[in-house]
Amino acid sequence: MGRRHNSLIRIATPENAGHDRELLDAIAGGSADPQVVFSVLEGGELALAWVNQAAKHSGLLMDPDALGSGLDDVLVAECAVSLRDAYPESLRVRERYAYEQFVTMAGVETWWMTTLVPLLDADGTARWLVATFLKLDFVRRTEAALRRSEANLRELIGKSPDAAIVCRPDGEPVYANPAAISVFGPDLRPAPPPDGARPRTFYDLIPAAARDGLRAVIDAALQGDSPVPLPFELRASEPDEDAVVLELHAIRLVFDGEPGVLLSARDVSQLRQVQASLALTDRLVALGRMAAGVAHEINNPLAYVQANLQFAAEELERLQSADIETVALSLSESLAALREASEGADRVRAIVRDLRGLSQLDPGPRRPTALTAVVETALKLAGSEIKSRGLLTRSFGPVPPVLAHEPRLVQVFLNLLLNAAYALDGRQQEAPEIRIAIGTDPTGRAFVEIVDTGTGIRDADLPRLFDPFFTTRAPGEGLGLGLSVCHQIISALGGRIDVESRFGVGSTFRVILPAASERS
Fold first, then answer.
1. 156 and 127, same structural domain?
2. Which of 26, 177, 311, 417 has the greatest count of CB atoms below 10 A from its CB?
3. Could you tell me how far CA 22 lies from the centroid of its own chain?
């Protein structure tokens, strides 16, 4: 199909052929593409008048030196036929005229665009026809490959079981697959807004609390970064339905020739339940590993609770026949014994409370949490395991509160402390030690650092350290869930766990968390 361009060239009639040659050189001589000039004979026939070097080597001309020859003797057959048909059209529209076609040369099809420019006398009579040939083979093949790629992408997105939405950079949806419409409703279907109305965007269809996160995810994708997955909860539309937890990813792409973002939302409700179950399993495993130590921690206060209660009971029984002075002294001693018994009961209650928090399946909403108190709880639970293996050194500095589930953080630091304690088992050393530090890093984030002088970790094992079920311990001594669960918990809070280790020297685990003010 031909295309029009606003260009019509009129020339004054030259005095002689020399002027014609200068004119042709001036008009056609600067092109790097194949270019041919035909003179227009009486009756509208075309004869070869001039060719440039690019045309001579293009393969489009059968005899580039046959000046004065007609179309059929100069151009390859397909070009000659097309040009003869297009020439009258270029005169009719009286504009630069372009068309595209396949041309077979040496058995190979190539794609060309031909542009015709008639050169007219002052009275409007055509004297010359300038034909410029532009090889579009690479361009057209690239465009065809792009169209195929976009078609494949559309088909892939359409059949994806995950909700997939293609948005413009401002969040306006331009395509949504059936799964996305099923999740977010028919309002997600791209549609022009009413006159004067703002186009509906994907931001309008998700909870308000998740919109800032979505904006950050889209901005990161447009900049080519790898954004962190954005989890958010979509409320159920019916009272008897459960809320759906979705995890959203974004990548930059070109769709229908325009820049955009592909948003993929996956239902991770069941995955979260499985992760919660694994986390509970890990906590129960940790409790099992600590069973003897916890029993010892409970048994000590229970022993003197029992002894003091027995003492108080015997004293009260003896008072029945005692004099006043003896009664006063005995009551004082009994009260002291009862106070000690009460303190022992409080210690038992605190241990039971910490254990119960550790075994909770649902930790409740995140709250500003004091890291020092969390670490103290973990130290109490792991205390007997640490004391029996080495020296514990503390360095607690000022630290901002973090937005978290306190029982989950207790689980993280309990796991890290137990791992540090067990790492001391494999080394014969004079002063095995665990050092724990709490503080604030230069960026205002909270950190907890646990250092042990244990066996360390081999370099080959470091990349797999947080993989589920990976463990360096002997069979039967662990499921390999602890560090994986720790990584999931800390990552969900916007933090990270850094690890440094030298095999045979020891390890350092550093947990870094944003302050509560950063995530509020």
1. no
2. 417
3. 63
Surface-to-core class of residue 374, CB atoms within 10 Å of its CB (0-12 exposed, 13-18 middle, 19+ buried): buried
Q: Give the end of a domain, one of 135, 165, 189.
A: 135
Q: What angle do CA 104, 105, 111 make, to 5 degrees?
A: 55
Alpha helices in 160-268 (DSSP H): 178-184, 211-222
Query: What is the distance, to the nearest Å, from the Cα of residue 235 to the centroid of all Cα atoms in its chain?
Result: 23
Q: DSSP 3-state assignment of 462?
A: helix
Three-state secondary structure string covering 95-163: CEEEEEEEEEECCEEEEEEEEEEEEECCCCCEEEEEEEEEECHHHHHHHHHHHHHHHHHHHHHHHCCCE
Identify the H or E element spanning 247: strand 244-255
CA angle 150, 152, 154 (to 5 degrees): 70
Cα gap 26→56, rounded to integer Å: 19
Cross-sheet strand order for the sheet of 446-452: 391-396, 433-440, 446-452, 506-513, 496-502
Tokens for 444? Answer: 């205002």
Q: Is the same domain home to 280 and 259?
A: no
Locus of tokens 């020092």: 372
Which of 135, 154, 188 marks a domain boundary? Answer: 135
CB contact burial 349-359 (16+ within 10 A = b; e otherwise): eebeebeebbe
Residues 281 and 410 both lie in one domain? yes
Q: Are 468 and 487 in contact (CB under 8 A)?
A: no
Together in a domain, 429 and 466 = yes
369 contacts 402 by C-beta, under 8 angstroms = yes
Separation CA 116–CA 7 (nearest Å): 10
Q: How confident is the prediction along the chain (520 residues), in pLDDT tens digits per residue?
A: 444 333 334 333 334 444 455 555 555 456 688 999 999 988 889 999 988 888 888 889 888 888 899 989 999 999 999 999 999 998 887 778 999 888 888 788 888 899 999 988 878 888 889 999 988 877 777 777 877 877 887 788 778 888 888 888 888 888 888 888 887 777 766 666 566 555 677 787 777 777 787 788 888 888 876 666 666 666 545 445 566 677 778 888 877 778 888 888 887 777 666 666 666 666 666 555 555 555 555 666 666 566 666 766 776 666 666 556 666 666 676 777 677 667 667 666 666 665 565 555 556 678 899 999 999 988 887 887 888 788 899 999 999 999 988 888 888 898 898 888 888 876 666 778 899 999 999 999 999 999 999 888 888 888 777 776 656 655 445 544 567 778 888 888 889 999 998 888 889 999 999 998 765 5
